[in-house]
Design brief:
By secondary structure, the protein is α+β, with helices and mostly antiparallel strands. It has three helices and four strands, in the order E-H-E-E-E-H-H. The structure holds FE2/S2 (inorganic) cluster.
């Protein structure tokens, strides 16, 4: 199963920082040479706007994601990506 990141780009999450999160994810995947190994998709709303910015990694939801949290999440889920690419 392809590793998957789903990031909410709905208006509420967008205002709370999902654009910065998306840019960070894209840069992180490129830097770690795993962009081709990870499916990155957007959504319009996850029905949890008040908890945003929201995203899922491999089906697991994460709320209130900021750049500090995101760095740890990416390392935790995809830190070994270079080995597999
Ligand atoms: S806009 Fe992201 S959960 Fe609604």
């Amino acid at each position: 199963m392809t590793p998957r990141i789903k990031i909410c780009m709905g208006s509420s999450c967008f205002q709370r920082g999902s654009k910065s999160n998306l840019e960070f994810i894209e840069a992180w995947l490129q830097m770690h040479r795993c962009a081709a190994a990870v499916e990155l998709v957007g959504s319009r709303c996850e029905d949890a706007c008040r908890k945003g910015p929201n995203m899922e990694i491999n089906g697991r939801p994460y709320h209130g994601v900021n750049l500090e949290i995101l760095a740890d999440l990416m390392e935790q889920h995809f830190g070994k990506c270079q080995v597999n690419s």
